[in-house]
Amino acid sequence: MFQSQLKDAAALIEARLMRALADAADQPVTHAMRYAVAGGKRLRGFLVIEGATLYGVSAGQAVHAAAAIEAIHAYSLVHDDMPCMDDDDLRRGLATVHIKWDEGTALLVGDALQTLAFGLLADPACHPAPSVRIDLVASLARAAGIDGMVLGQAQDIAAETAGRALNLAEITELQANKTGALIRWSAEAGARLGGADVAPLSSYATALGLAFQIADDILDVEGDVEKTGKRVQKDADAGKATFVSLLGLDGARARARDLVDEACAALDPFGPRADVLRETARFVIARDT
Predict the structure, then answer these.
(1) Domains of the chain: which residue ranges?
(2) Fewer CB near the last or first residue (10 Å), C or N of the chain?
(3) Which CATH number fits domain 2-286: 3.30.310.10, 1.10.10.10, 1.10.150.120, 1.10.600.10?
């Protein structure tokens, strides 16, 4: 049931993204944008849609915000894969954008996907109230920028030349920014669309985001490239501190389980209506991709 819901949401989100790009110029950068947003689990967009259902907002309305966060996520991956960042040649089992095209095109793809995201949120189709749309735009700008994801990326780059491995508190802060900020926005977006308090879903997503990153660190150690669709063992090869290197595999698994419990507890005010989000939290640490 959960997997089918995830796939249905992914199809809805992909259709919205492709519709947004349907009339774009027939240029390599446009083709590369479509390539970059195709596929993936769409977990962030799924969180938007499922969070919105708690406040009576339909998937048909929430899909605009869901597509926006997936555009931001895709932009971050395209830039993160470039030689000046993590230098990856494989993403979702396919050549990364700078490999399939070139570095200049990859740079422009990321730039264009970022602006596309804010265009989707500013569109009246996203929500009839300008105040809600402005709130979505402003909050995503914070989550994706120097107060969120970009800060985490900068902290990650700085760690490479720090001359020492980061400690657990530093890794937690870094990942709460780099990975967690967009996951947190994704969950909060449903409440924003519904004109409700974001606090319960923010608490849920804060725990979920760290659990997600711990699961990623475990996959980097134990994962299979055929399943993950990307290089594994790269953190260990680079000598980077991770939750696994600091806690060990068993300790990392235990911490991830505790975080999932925290995430699920934050959903108590919603009762069984939030069961899909609870299942999402469990999925995050059980996945193999």
Answers:
(1) 2-286
(2) N
(3) 1.10.600.10
